[in-house]
Amino acid sequence: KIMTATLHLSLADQTGDSAIIEYIAGKPVIHHDRRYVVMTNDPTFEKQAENLKQYQEFGGDKPIPGTNAASDRFVRASYYMKLLPKPQNLREALAGVISVTRNISQPFRTSVDPENPFASSTIWRSTADLTNVCYYFESTQSPFLIWASLADFNLKKGAPAMMLDLRKYPDCFGDVSKQFVGKDPSEIVYFSLK
């Protein structure tokens, strides 16, 4: 059975500006605002933002929901991000954001829909430190947090593409910047839950 996947991206820059891009009916829809820092799978971002208004802390009277549904996870993530204290250092900033992403993640392979077993499953969590240009990543296939400092990479036009194949390093942890290898960008890299 061939299943199509939806695609959405969350983008931010060092000034704090952010956008969420999702593809609806095959066309990109861009939601651009500094406040847009949360996204989940379904429904569309516009519907998520409208739904959020029903809940306490966002103008409504409903309590914060607790199910694994993507719409409930969106509300919880928005709620917890709003309540995070201002971090005093990088460690506190990372710990805060990572704690929110872990809280809203759907436990590994716990879909409630037997016809669509991978619906809304959390496959990975990522956090970007835009000040120090470092990318943090957690796979549901591993208990370890890894990171790569983009300062260690040649990002100039024409530089070779680099890749870290986590299937070859299932137990890697910590700084993996030096484990990336050159890769032809035309080669297809796929992800499988098997």
Question: How would you describe this protein?
Answer:
By secondary structure, the chain is an alpha+beta fold. The protein has a domain at 123-194. It is built from three helices and nine strands. The strands form three sheets. It has a four-stranded mixed sheet with strand order 4-5-6-8, with helices on one face. A three-stranded antiparallel sheet has the order 1-2-3, with no helix packed on it. Helix 2 packs antiparallel against helix 3. The longest helix is centred in the middle third of the chain and has 15 residues, at 90-104. It is globular and about 50 Å long.
Record the SSE blueprint.
Layout: E1 8-12, E2 18-24, E3 27-32, H1 45-52, H2 70-83, H3 90-104, E4 124-129, E5 134-139, E6 145-149, E7 162-163, E8 174-175, E9 181-182
Parallel strand pairs: 6-8
Antiparallel strand pairs: 1-2, 2-3, 4-5, 5-6, 7-9
Could you write a compact summary of the structure shown?
The chain has three helices and nine strands, in the order E-E-E-H-H-H-E-E-E-E-E-E. With 194 residues, the protein is an alpha+beta fold.
